[in-house]
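hey so i finally got around to running the thing on that chain from the lab meeting. sorry it took forever, my laptop kept dying and i had to restart like 3 times. anyway pasting the input first so we r on the same page abt which one it is
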Amino acid sequence: MSDAGIILLLGASGPVGRCFIDRTAGKQVRVIAVSRRNPARSRPHVTWLQHDLENAPADVRAGTLISFGPLAHTLSQVAQGIGLGRVIALSSASTLFKQHSADRAERRRIRALARCEVALADICRERGIVLTLLKPTLTYGGGSESDPVGRLAALAQQRSILPYAGRGLRSPVHVDDLARLAVQCVISGPSSEGSWLLGGAETLTYPELLRRAAASQGRPVRLLRLPAWLMKTLLRGAHLAGRMRDIRPVMIDRQCMDLVVDDTPARERLAWNPRPFRPDPGP
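ok and heres what got predicted. didnt touch it at all, straight out
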C-alpha cells in the first residue's frame, strides 16, 4: 500500500480514537495508531506504534493524519510530516466560550488552543494540505476519566441530592458520532475541508443534563438549586478538606451560561447527524 493509503492516527487510545478504529474495521484501510502504551485489544487493520508524542512527532510516512489528541501534537506532526495530503483534527468549541474565563490557567490553555488552530491552518495552507477541523461542544461517552457527563453520573451514585447553580443550555456530542464523522470526512475527501462547529441532536438545560446523567446509573436524584456564591463557598470548604479539587469555581459560573453552537453548516455540508443525548450506562 502507498503512503497515500495509510492513516496515521494520534489519540488512538482515547475514546474517539477507539471508536474510529472500530468503525474503520473491514473498510480496506491501514491504520498506524500511536499510543504511549500498547492497547488491551486491537484490530487486524491496525498497527500500533508505542511512542510518546510529548518527546517528538512519530516517524511515520502517511497520506492522511487523523488526530483525536492534543492539537499541539497535531501541529508538530504536520510540521515534520512528509507526503501528507489530508489532516482531520479534533479541537473544541470551547475556544468560543472560555477565552475570557475568570480562571487564568484555563484562559491560557484556551488561548493557546486558539493559536494552535491558526498555526495549523497556516501550515496546511502553505503545504497544500486539506485540513478538516472538528470543534464539538461538550463531549461524552467512551468511559474516559475526563468525560464530564461520566463524572456527573459518578457523583450521582454517591449522593441523593445534587446542587446546581444555573440553567445554561448544553448540546452534548457522543464520541462515537465524532468518529463516524471522521470516517465520513476521509471518504468525502476535500469537500470536508474547513473548520466545523458541532453540537448534539438535543439542546437541554444543565439540570436536565444532571437528571439524565443520574438516570443512566439507574438511580433518581433530587436536584437542588443554590446561588452560585453559596456553591462556591461550599466548594472552597471542600477544597480545604482535600475533596473535589478537580472542580473549580469557574465551572459553577458556567452552569449559568449557554454553551451551544450553530452547527447548521456541518449538518448541511457534512451530513452531520448526531444521536440524541443518551449517557452511557455505568459499569
